[in-house]
Design a protein that fits this description.
The chain contains seven helices and 18 strands. The strands form four sheets. A six-stranded antiparallel sheet has the order 4-3-6-1-2-5, with helices on one face.
């Protein structure tokens, strides 16, 4: 199980960036400090709304070299499960929140000859901190910021007036400047590393174009905080410690079924396969891994799984619970 240090913070500023996006500045509460972080890191923000508890992951978009505050940008999702709605509608300046120490599943690769950053919509956020590191390293890099309409450009004005402006290229689909991935990636230097954060369709488009162009998987890096598909075939779940057998239907996750039946106590900070707190050992069967937490080697080992999002490959799965 992963253990996260939690930090008390105060909301010192809230800015409306677009009608759907707000930026929150967080400073340490009394007698606390903010742990250091590297570009591409995220934190988990815990929210208590009456009896409802939410815990969402958000990329840090402030400079890693400024230890005085954290900044996160949150898009108000139309189909919010509660977290983004709470932050947009109920959090005000002066409120206290609890956040995790930063964790980084999306770091820059030091040996890359060129860094190609591809952001889709709100996926710009992790790159905002990357830019500070790349500029300090005097690295060779480009940021390609893709969005559908001019009104979607959350940080375009800020980026185009920054020290990074000469390295930022905006692609606006409605204006005919959509990034043509096959053409663009095919002409990249072969030792480039490509980092993508955006919708599942953007991630898959980059992956397919890069594979066509001959880039290896270890040159491709993706971040996506939500698992778009947690569904699959139904299977039998066995909790080895208690001997309890449960049926996991096609629409529910293992964690949801366990909680619904009060069959075991499991911690889970994110519920999206990012934090690792619900990692559980596999005693029999194989996992259909859907998370972003494990490396490919860890997934292939089939020794443990994240039960908030991953499923069974077969009809029966025995876990150490």
């Amino acid at each position: 199980m992963s253990a996260y240090q939690m930090v008390d913070v105060i909301v010192s500023d809230i800015e409306t960036i677009t009608p759907a996006i707000k930026r929150f500045t967080l400073i340490p509460d009394q007698n606390t400090h903010l742990p250091a972080f590297s570009g591409g890191s995220h934190i988990f923000v815990q929210m208590q709304d009456g009896s409802q508890h939410y815990s969402n992951a958000y990329s840090l978009l402030s400079s890693p070299f400024d230890e005085q505050h954290y900044q996160i940008a949150i898009k108000r999702e139309a189909d919010s499960c509660g977290g983004s709605a709470f932050m947009h509608e109920k959090v005000v300046i002066g409120d206290k929140l609890v956040v995790s120490e930063p964790n980084n599943l999306f770091p820059l690769v030091p040996e890359a000859k060129k860094h190609i950053l591809i952001a889709g919509g709100i996926g710009i956020t992790p790159f905002m901190s990357h830019l500070h590191e790349l500029e300090r390293q005097n690295a060779d890099y480009e940021l390609h910021y893709c969005y559908r309409y001019a009104s979607d450009n959350a940080f375009r004005q800020e980026l185009m007036s920054s020290a990074f402006k000469d390295k930022v290229i905006c692609h606006v689909s409605s204006e005919g400047t959509r990034l043509e991935l096959d053409t663009f990636i095919a002409q990249l230097p072969t030792e480039s590393h490509i980092y993508t954060c955006g919708s599942n369709s953007l991630n898959e488009g980059v992956r397919q174009a890069a594979q066509k162009a001959g880039f290896s998987d270890n040159q491709l890096h993706f971040e996506q905080f939500t698992v778009e598909d947690k569904t699959g075939d139904a299977f039998t779940l066995v909790l080895a410690r208690s001997g309890v057998e449960l049926e996991v239907d096609s629409e529910s996750t293992i964690l949801q079924v366990i909680e619904r039946n009060k069959a075991a106590s499991v911690d889970c900070l994110c519920r999206e396969g990012v934090c690792g707190t619900c990692e559980t050992a596999i005693l029999e069967g194989e996992a259909d891994h859907r998370d972003q937490y494990f490396t490919d080697e860890e997934k292939q080992s089939q020794t443990s799984m994240l039960i908030c999002c991953s499923r069974a490959k077969g009809k029966r799965l025995v876990l150490d619970l």
